[in-house]
Amino acid sequence: MSRLLPIVLIAACGTTAPTMPDRPRTFGGDRPVDLQVPSGFDATMQYPLVVVLHGYSASGFVQEAYFGLKELQTSGKAFVLAPDGLVDATGNQFWNADPACCDFGGIGPDDSHYLGKLIDDVRAAWPVSWVSLVGHSNGGYMSYRMACDRADVISSIVVLAGLTPTTPCAPARGINVLHIHGTADASVPYSAGGVGAVASVTKWEQYNGCGSAHSDGPALDLDATIAGAETHTQLDNNCPAQARVELWTLQGSSHVPSLTPQFEPQIWDWIKTNAR
Predict the structure, then answer these.
(1) N or C terminus: fewer CB in 10 A for the chain?
(2) Which helix (H) or strand (E) holds 146?
(3) pTM, whole model, 2 decimals?
(4) CA-to-CA distance for 95 and 116, rounded, in angstroms?
(5) Closest by CA position to 37, among listed 28, 49, 22, 19
(6) Could you give the C-alpha distances from 119 to 21, 72, 143, 180, 191, in angstroms and in order?
(7) Phi-psi region for residue 226, left (φ > 0), alpha (ψ -120 to 50) or beta?
(8) Dihedral, CA of residue 237, residue 240, residue 243 and residue 245, to nearest 10
(9) Does some domain include residue 1?
(10) How far apart are CA 83 and CA 181, in angstroms?
């Protein structure tokens, strides 16, 4: 009996399905960030990758909590990355997106390369179906920068209170863009001398080869401090497939709106609808 036991154990082990090889969970080299793997991850499936980009002086953790996007990982819907920018001389984390925002100390990091490599490395190690960026303020500027530089792998961007780069932009292909902005934003004004929200959206309509006809979408309630459905949604009706451009205007909202519980599901629905 004792001599048969090892044989039985070996046979039993031989019939066990092979385990999934270990995959890296931390990326970014000397600027590490942990990949948040969907709950109940199934190696036979593909999942979207959502990259959260924080505003100036914020952090990836804070920004993810503000947007409510942790739910994408905990519900098993998507991979989530929430990286941090470098720290400037005033102790604030930032992204070097554009001369206008926000490398105020002139440190000069190549954040486009850093974030592009993060995305490439995660895609190489995990089953990623498509990539979307969601950024606020400085992170919104950086999302636009990445849309300019890495449209080859990015399906869509969602920008809250940011603006498109003032420097040259030549996206490799059309990209889905959702721009969200409050009309009472004092930090990044909705109308900023030709480089505000409408100008940013217009540029991307041109990059994407869209027409000029627009229509109104449904009114949304995204700011808890303003009664009713304060958000006007504008759709471009003449964009090519996979190059959609929308402007959601929060009437009376500030630079950091008090987001309602509707915000996360509305954003996720838009990202899913515009998957590539």
Answers:
(1) N
(2) helix 138-149
(3) 0.91
(4) 13
(5) 49
(6) 20, 17, 13, 24, 32
(7) beta
(8) -20
(9) no
(10) 23
Size of the chain, expressed as the number of residues it contains: 276
CA angle 107, 140, 91 (to 5 degrees): 35
**Going by DSSP bridges, is the β-strand pair 33-34/26-27 parallel, antiparallel, or unpaired?**
antiparallel
Q: Does an H or E element contain 33, and which?
A: strand 33-34
Our CA dihedral for 236, 239, 112, 99, rounded to 10 degrees, sits at: -50
Is residue 49 domain-resident?
yes
In sequence order, what DSSP letters do the residues of 191-243 get, joined into one string?
S-TT-SHHHHHHHHHHHHT--S-EEE---B--BTTSSS--EEEEEETTPPTT-
In contact, 170 and 105? CB cutoff 8 Å: no
How far apart CA 137 and CA 259 sit, in angstroms, is 15
- Give the domain CATH number at 60: 3.40.50.1820
Render each residue's pLDDT in the chain as its tens digit; 276 residues.
333 333 333 333 444 433 445 899 999 999 999 999 999 999 999 999 999 999 999 999 999 999 999 999 999 999 999 999 999 999 999 999 999 999 999 999 999 999 999 999 999 999 999 999 999 999 999 999 999 999 999 999 999 999 999 999 999 999 999 999 999 999 999 986 667 999 999 999 999 999 989 999 999 999 999 999 999 999 998 999 899 999 999 999 999 999 999 999 999 999 999 998
Instruction: Evaluate whether residue 143 is within a structural domain.
Output: yes
Count up the domains in the chain and report the number.
1
* Number of alpha helices (DSSP H) and beta strands (DSSP E) in the chain: 7, 12
Q: Is the dihedral angle over the CA atoms 135, 137, 139, 141 positive or is it negative?
A: positive
